[in-house]
Amino acid sequence: MSDKLQKLLAHAGLGSRRELETWIEAGRVTVNGKRAKLGDRADPQDRILVDGKPVRLTSEARETITAILYHKPEGEICTRKDPKGRPTMFDNLPAIANGRWVSVGRLDINTSGLILLTNNGQLANKLMHPSTGLEREYLVRVRGRVSPSDIQTLTRDGVELDGKSARFDRILAADMAEEGTNHWYRVVIREGRYREVRRLWEAVGHTVSRLKRIRYGTVSLPRSIKQGHHAKLAPKQLERLVISAGLAEQFSGQLYSSKSGAKPGPKPARSAQRQAKESQVKRSTRSSRAGGKPRITDGANSQLKSDARSEPRSQRKPKPKAKTRTKTRQRG
């Protein structure tokens, strides 16, 4: 089944659909040797080139969506290759079959923390888009004491950056030990502009000396994941992330492995016999806690007697003989 060309390219993680439409208009995309135009459709079997380089596509309808979180250390960059030879986070990521990892946003080289990556370009672009309004939470260390007026400016009044107003949603004191003139805070923001967190603090006269992202939307960075390591998102984590992006209905059949065939359903109902047994155990437990002996209901007692009578006499266990105590004479 064919899809619009910009949709296929967005799914491959090359950019947003609007951005890719400008690429098509500029003549940067060809399909099977012909220059593409807006409105063209294609499928993964077509030979698609962008700037003369082939693009590997997979069928979005058949692909199982997966995602990982990565703990980026300072000093790493978020691009696949660097002309200067600096280390890139993609060197530490696991291989992925029939696809590639698409990062959900970036962190600059001096910022550490959480990076989300997925094999689905459409999901990545949706999670990054400002219209989704997902929160990004950071741990930030700033120099100097932050005044109440600084907090008001950064959270209520806003600061002009690149001709647009910007502000934090929240600023909270972090549970971190103070380090001389440095103080730790937790900040929450819903945008991902270039170096926005640092520039907001600089606007009120504070320099950021450390910055670490600890949450993106519904996903938080676990303390158990060390720098330079990654972890796969659990199915429930991935499901919540897709829901937060507004793509739950569209991706409903792609969140679980094809081996299972579908989303796991509710647990099967307990049988009436099991429910009766559990009820009996609960009543016996309550009775023993109240100071009495656990009792067996009349129905259960009758069943025990019935089972004993139905057993052949030859197989019944003989009752143990009562022990008799004999007195011994003491010889004196």
Explain the layout of strands and helices.
Layout: E1 3-4, H1 5-11, H2 17-25, E2 29-31, E3 34-35, E4 41-42, E5 48-50, E6 53-54, E7 67-72, E8 102-104, E9 112-118, H3 121-128, E10 136-143, H4 148-157, E11 159-161, E12 164-166, E13 170-173, E14 182-189, H5 196-203, E15 208-216, E16 219-220, E17 230-232, H6 235-244, H7 272-289, H8 298-310
Parallel strand pairs: 9-15
Antiparallel strand pairs: 1-4, 2-3, 2-5, 5-6, 7-9, 7-17, 8-9, 10-14, 10-15, 11-12, 13-14, 15-16
Helix pairs in contact: 1-2, 1-3
Kindly describe this structure:
β2 (29-31) and β3 (34-35) form a beta hairpin. Among the domains are: 3-54, RNA-binding S4 domain (Structural Genomics Hypothetical 15.5 Kd Protein In mrcA-pckA Intergenic Region, Chain A, Roll); 67-244, Pseudouridine synthase, CATH 3.30.2350. Strands 7, 8, 9, 10, 13, 14, 15, 16 and 17 form a nine-stranded mixed sheet that branches. The chain has a four-stranded antiparallel sheet with strand order 3-2-5-6, with no helix packed on it. The chain has a two-stranded antiparallel ribbon with strand order 1-4. The chain is globular and about 65 Å long. The chain has helices at residues 5-11, 17-25, 121-128, 148-157, 196-203, 235-244, 272-289, 298-310, and strands at 3-4, 29-31, 34-35, 41-42, 48-50, 53-54, 67-72, 102-104, 112-118, 136-143, 159-161, 164-166, 170-173, 182-189, 208-216, 219-220, 230-232. The chain has 332 residues and is α+β, with helices and mostly antiparallel strands.
